[in-house]
Structures are given as structure tokens and as C-alpha cells.
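Milestone 3.1: sequence recovery, worked example.
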């Protein structure tokens, strides 16, 4: 007759439960998978499937009672590790949102705001458009598959039970400064072009005070902004692929991986 002890049952549950917590923590905010349009059931089933596939390949997990307070702490740690890993990718996607917001301000479209149900807030129209473009480009580059691969490798590079505070948290905080630098780098050509347009109309307003510069300047700024948006798509995929590679590399190095 088959008999199992509580220790064996706890070990069996922990083999699947700890990887599930880390993967589910990443799927909460990972681009596309963390979107509110993706049902929670799909995310849970995907996390359970990946956990079941990689469980036999993982290093030994800590032997902790599944219903103890220590097990709760360990589950929270795995959620935080997965959350922080996926945060690198979430910051990368929001580079495009900030890029669109900068262009909207220069074009005079900052008042054109669209409600975004996926984030629960309001974003500039171009910001939402570029965010969708960045998400599709990330999927086209198979970035989601690379991210899941890094997440699976994290169990070997940063085994379960290593804790959270030993991670290089300052590198994660530095990414919040990186988002502004990356968005400004993408928007710099359009900002300079719009600055030339605004300077031109400033000179016209001084040379011909009777000219209604506001009636003429707004549509011209809008037209120049649309041209900047059109021409920005020529070099945006290559630059954004570099940003994706940088974000995935930072995500891999965060858990002790060597590039």
C-alpha cells in the first residue's frame, strides 16, 4: 500500500509551487502576457505548464513545510524575484509610451488623451500608439521567448531560497533613469525638427506682427509632427531592437548571468 508522509507531500508540492510563484510573478507585468486583455486563467495555465515542464530539471529546492510561515515568506520572495525580472521588460515597453508623449507635446497633441483600459489610466494618443507598436515589435523579435528562457535559467543562476536583498537592486533602480535617456534618444530628431518650426514661426511673428501666427502655426506644427512620425518609422525598428537586447541583457545580468 502506498503511503506518503507530510514531508514527502510538502516536498512534492514545493517542487511545482516555488517555480510557479516566480513565473506567475513575472507574468503579472510582462509585456503582452501581463496585459489586462489576457485572461488570468490563461496566465495561470501557462505558468502551471511551464512549472511542470521545468520542475524535473531544477536544482534541489528547500525542504519547507508547505503550510508554514516560512513557506509563505519563500513564496513572496519568488513572486518578487519574478516581478523584478519582468520589470526590466515593462520599463522597456514604456520607453515607447514616453517617446510618443514627447512627440505629442511638440506637436500640440498633449490635450489628445485616450483612456487605456489595460493600464487603468490615460495616455497621450501617440504614446498609446507607439506602445502598441513596441509590443508588436517585441513579439516579432521573439523577445517574449527569450524572456521566458531567461526566466527558466534564473532557477539555476539564482536558485530558490537565495533571497531578494542579495540581488543587485541598484541596477534595477538605474533602469528608471535609463527609460528617460532611451526615450529622449528616440525623440531627439523629432524634437529638433519641431524646434526649428517653432523658431521659424517665432521669427515670423516678430517680422510680421499682423500675421496670425497661431492660426498658421498650429496646423503647420501638426503637419511637421506627422512627417516626423512618418520618417521615424524608418529607423525605429533597428533602434528599438537594440533597446530590447539591452533590456534582456540587463535582465539576464540581474540574476548573475554573464553576457
Amino acid at each position: 500500500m502506498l503511503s506518503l508522509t507530510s514531508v514527502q507531500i510538502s516536498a512534492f508540492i514545493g517542487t511545482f509551487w516555488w517555480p510557479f510563484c516566480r513565473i506567475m510573478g513575472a507574468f503579472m507585468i510582462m509585456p503582452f502576457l501581463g496585459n489586462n486583455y489576457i485572461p488570468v486563467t490563461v496566465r495561470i495555465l501557462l505558468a502551471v505548464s511551464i512549472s511542470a515542464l521545468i520542475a524535473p530539471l531544477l536544482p534541489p529546492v528547500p525542504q519547507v513545510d508547505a503550510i508554514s510561515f516560512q513557506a509563505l515568506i519563500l513564496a513572496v520572495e519568488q513572486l518578487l524575484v519574478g516581478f523584478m525580472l519582468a520589470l526590466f521588460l515593462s520599463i522597456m515597453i514604456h520607453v515607447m509610451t514616453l517617446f510618443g508623449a514627447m512627440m505629442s507635446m511638440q506637436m500640440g497633441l498633449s490635450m489628445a488623451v485616450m483612456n487605456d483600459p489595460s493600464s487603468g489610466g490615460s495616455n497621450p494618443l501617440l504614446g498609446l500608439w507607439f506602445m502598441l507598436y513596441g509590443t508588436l515589435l517585441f513579439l516579432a523579435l521573439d523577445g517574449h521567448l527569450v524572456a521566458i528562457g531567461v526566466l527558466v535559467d534564473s532557477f539555476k543562476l539564482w536558485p530558490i531560497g537565495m533571497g531578494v536583498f542579495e540581488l543587485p537592486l541598484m541596477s534595477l533602480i538605474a533602469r528608471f533613469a535609463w527609460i528617460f535617456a532611451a526615450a529622449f534618444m528616440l525623440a531627439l530628431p523629432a524634437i529638433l525638427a519641431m524646434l526649428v518650426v517653432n523658431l521659424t514661426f517665432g521669427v515670423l511673428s516678430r517680422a510680421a506682427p499682423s500675421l496670425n501666427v497661431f492660426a498658421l502655426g498650429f496646423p503647420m506644427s501638426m503637419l511637421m509632427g506627422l512627417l516626423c512620425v512618418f520618417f521615424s518609422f524608418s529607423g525605429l525598428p533597428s533602434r528599438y531592437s537594440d533597446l530590447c537586447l539591452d533590456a534582456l541583457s540587463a535582465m539576464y545580468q540581474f540574476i548573475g548571468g554573464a553576457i
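Residues 1 and 8 are 16 Å apart (CA to CA). The chain has a mean pLDDT of 80.
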